[in-house]
Design goal:
Blueprint lengths: L5 E9 L2 E10 L4 E6 L8 H11 L3 E11 L5 E5 L1 H16 L9 H5 L5 E5 L1 H73 L5 H15 L2 H20 L4 H22 L3 H21 L4
Parallel strand pairs: 3-4
Antiparallel strand pairs: 1-2, 2-4, 5-6
Helix pairs in contact: 1-4, 4-5, 4-6, 4-8, 6-7, 7-8
């Protein structure tokens, strides 16, 4: 079992480059991949997305990469000579006319969009893509490790909840039997209070009708079947586990709600409320299962 929540980080330093990649994951109905790369690495966005999709099936996954050049030999400065000459001539003319105190400096040129561009050298730029994908692979591996660790914790909670649900089901069965007897007894008391004579056959029919309305055995049987199906899912740990668990827990929730609607006894209602709480807690956890 894997959680959709996780984090992984990897950093690689090679030939004057340092690349750090961070991968974060949170809940999502499907797979949503978000990639944030520095300008020098943006050409590799598609490859990053493909790597994530090959490793992760579900969740919102955010990938962020950071690039640092460690030496001047890894960087190449490119500038537009035409733009620099035109701007220089323009600033010199303004200075001659007394409109500028000085001519244009390099600092002024750097503020002009696209006039000066600092980029990786062609040799290093090709290497940066390789280092990026290698760091991403390591970060994804650690990301999956944290997802599995969180998934193991959730699985323990699921199994504990299933044991609690089994114990509550046994309590509910006892309370359900008492509910039928209590309903028949209340009917007898009501008839006695009214002081009327009731045909024994009609009385049996009324008691049978009350028993049918108060019977929750079908709900308990189906609840037990869903519980066993969930235990089998946890043992099998197959694909698309989160959605399958959520479906089963919806069915459990429906059975518990029907049981509570039929309940007319304090003990059964209290047990049903505890069962509903357990199922709701499991369903919240299932939202985080990949």
């Amino acid at each position: 079992m894997e959680s959709m929540t996780g984090f992984g980080r990897a950093e690689i330093e090679r030939d004057g480059l340092r690349v750090r990649v961070e991968v974060r994951g949170v809940n999502h109905k499907g797979l949503d991949v978000q990639v944030s790369l520095p300008p020098a690495l943006q050409a590799h966005e598609l490859a990053c997305r493909q790597a994530v999709r090959a490793s992760v099936a579900r969740g919102r996954v955010e990938v962020r990469a950071f690039l640092e050049a460690l030496g001047e030999e890894t960087v190449e400065v490119r500038y537009s000579e035409a733009a620099a000459r035109a701007l220089g001539a323009f600033s010199a003319a303004l200075a001659r006319d007394g409109l500028l105190a000085r001519g244009m400096t390099l600092g002024d040129l750097l503020t002009v969009p696209d006039a000066v561009r600092v980029a990786l050298s062609p040799r290093v730029e090709a290497l940066a893509g390789e280092v990026l994908l290698e760091a991403l692979s390591e970060a994804l591996s650690r990301f999956r490790d944290t997802r599995r660790a969180e998934g193991e914790r959730i699985e323990v909670q699921f199994r504990q909840a299933l044991e609690a649900l089994s114990a509550l089901k046994a309590e509910a069965e006892g309370a359900a039997a008492e509910q039928v007897e209590s309903a028949a007894e209340r009917l007898n008391q009501r008839i006695q209070q009214l002081g009327v004579q009731v045909d024994p056959g009609r009385m049996e029919q009324e008691v049978a009708l009350l028993a049918q309305r108060a019977d929750v055995q079908e709900e308990l049987v189906r609840l037990s079947a869903h519980r066993q199906a969930m235990a089998d899912l946890l043992d099998g740990n197959g694909g698309d586990l989160g959605r399958r668990l959520d479906h089963l827990l919806q069915e459990m929730q429906r059975e518990v709600s029907t049981l509570l609607a039929k309940s007319d006894a304090y003990a059964l209602t209290q047990t049903g409320l505890q069962m509903r709480l357990v199922v709701e807690q499991m369903r919240e956890q299932a939202q985080n299962v990949a």
